[in-house]
Amino acid sequence: MSNVSPNQWGLEQIVADLRASREQLHRTRHPLGIRELPSREAVINIVAGLRAALFPTHWGAPDLTDESVDYYVGHTLESTLRLLAEQIRRALRFLPEHAQTPDADLNARAFEVAREFGTQLPAIRALLVSDIQAAYTGDPAAQHITEILLCYPGVWAMTHHRLAHALHRLGVPLLARFINEIAHSATGIDIHPGAQIDSSFFIDHGTGVVIGETAIIGKNVRVYQAVTLGAKSFAADIDGALIKGNARHPIVEDDVVIYAGATILGRVTIGRGSVIGGNVWLTHSVPPGSSVSQGKVREGERSRERGNDDGAR
Fold first, then answer.
1. pLDDT per residue as tens digits for the range 258-268
2. CB neighbours of 53 closer than 8 A, spacing ≥ 6?
3. What is the rounded end-to-end Cα distance, in angstroms, of the chain?
4. Residue ending a domain, choose from 150, 167, 189
5. Contact at 8 Å (CB) between 180 and 193?
6. 228 and 138 share one domain
7. Mean pLDDT, to the nearest integer, of 9-18?
8. SS in 3 state form for the chain?
9. Global pTM?
10. How confident is the model at residue 297 (pLDDT cuts 50, 70, 90)?
11. Domain identity same for 252 and 168
12. Within this chain, do residues 183 and 256 fall inside the same structural domain, yes or no?
């Protein structure tokens, strides 16, 4: 087929039709014509660098010693934060308040955000260690911390989420969403970077878990595969456009277990210490200590089966 000419493919007409689609019929370009987008490859490299700095003996260089590890972490962070600042600059341009910001001011703002993000890394690592410990404590199949850190999709997803949530809070929502969607494509776990998740959070198995933007999750919460913390409905304005940012996802208090396939919708509260059984569809709040199974709610009775998992391990 190497001797086929462009004319035989009809390329001139295809190119013309694609231009008409881009420029007239089906425009997707940003209203301000922004062409410099965040880079997926760069974001992947940034997360890899941050992961190596947070857990250098697991994700860093293989030959690190007690004498060299701090140098490695410092060198890795310097190059990674430099890359991050550039991607932050690109993402900030998409915010309405920065649409006309001069380049020099935007560069300065990106640097400040990246520097502030760097100061939060020790606290982010502490949260991730609590998640890892929760996985080790909550999964009888877990052999050691290294297995969890290297192999568990829930920890992979939470590593991305903890980093993304910090950037989201620092005012870079596009880049934060980018980071979490990379984890989503790798694990099947879909967490919006706006979701607030406290310490010792364990996602077991993980595939199909969905956690919405305004969800709030307390300490020591465990969820299994195919759990959804979603919205029940979407408010719209008088023109029918969806209203953004409303609190529309569940609040899950401390020490809650949600088993596989459960769906919890709307701004409802799952009280502390409750157990939500598998495949439950729940659209109302339950008080602390409740045990909810299909067709049955036992309030104030904490399940004695919390150590039971879904039998897959």
1. 999 999 999 99
2. 60, 73, 76, 77, 80, 121
3. 52
4. 189
5. yes
6. no
7. 89
8. CCCCCHHHHCHHHHHHHHHHHHHHHCCCCCCCCCCCCCCHHHHHHHHHHHHHHHCHHHHCCCCCCCCCHHHHHHHHHHHHHHHHHHHHHHHHCCCHHHCCCCHHHHHHHHHHHHHHHHHCHHHHHHHHHHHHHHHHHHCCCCCCHHHHHHHCHHHHHHHHHHHHHHHHHCCCHHHHHHHHHHHHHHHCCEECCCCEECCCCEECCCCCCEECCCCEECCCCEECCCCEEECCCCCECCCCCECCCCCCCCEECCCCEECCCCEEECCCEECCCCEECCCCEECCCECCCCEEECCEEECCCCCCCCCCCCCCC
9. 0.88
10. low
11. no
12. no
Q: How far apart are CA 66 and CA 161, in angstroms?
A: 29
pLDDT value of residue 306: 43
311 and 226 inside one domain: yes
User: Residue 218's domain spans which residues?
Assistant: 195-313
**Do residue 36 and residue 170 come from a single domain?**
yes
Cα separations in angstroms, 247 against 38, 88, 195, 230, 276: 28, 26, 11, 11, 22
291-293 and 296-298 as β-strands: parallel, antiparallel, unpaired? antiparallel
Between CA 151 and CA 206 the distance in angstroms is 12
What CA–CA distance (Å, rounded) separates 268 from 264? 8
Placement of tokens 């409905």 in the chain: 233
Number of Cβ atoms within 10 Å of the Cβ of 191: 27
Half-sphere exposure of 80 toward its Cβ, with a 13 Å CA cutoff?
Answer: 22
